[in-house]
Structure prediction request, 190 residues.
Amino acid sequence: MTKNIMIVGVGGQGSLLASKLLGHLLLSEGYDVKVSEVHGMSQRGGSVVTYVRFGDKVYSPIIDKGEADFIVSFEELEAARYVEYLKEGGRIVTNTQQIDPMPVIIGAAPYPEGLIGKMQALGIRVDAMDCLSLAEKAGSAKAVNIVLMGRLSLYFDIPAEKWQKAIAECVPAKFEEMNQKAFLLGRGEA
Prediction:
């Protein structure tokens, strides 16, 4: 059975490293893995989406509406934007950070209020946490992606040590210690 994970965020937040890490981990676990990067205006702070699909045999890297087991979101509005991709019984793992999109920046629209509560009111399972403060505690605001991976790891039957090995193999050595700490903070173990 194929499992589908969508990683959604804003350009420059590290969603590509997160998908690389997931792909690396899942391959090492013996799964067939397809990773597809769908770039929006990533250099302009626009939406960036990455699909990670894994299972015994995966034929396509694309996730359609209603197929995602998990949506991992780097900020609230991106989680809400892609909610229609979540399958029934799926879960959103999101950072509670709010990053203003262009219409908000130029004053054309307000940032929507209460998005997490609205998604939960629709019966959607949302695991929301302040990943930015945890990333800063680990040593860098740029580690939000790894905090999110730590949180996501709680929903997999893959031991934390294997996730940590994948981190060691996917991040530059000089950033490994910080990323390991970010991972453990995301799991609630640090």
Observations:
- The chain has eight helices and six strands.
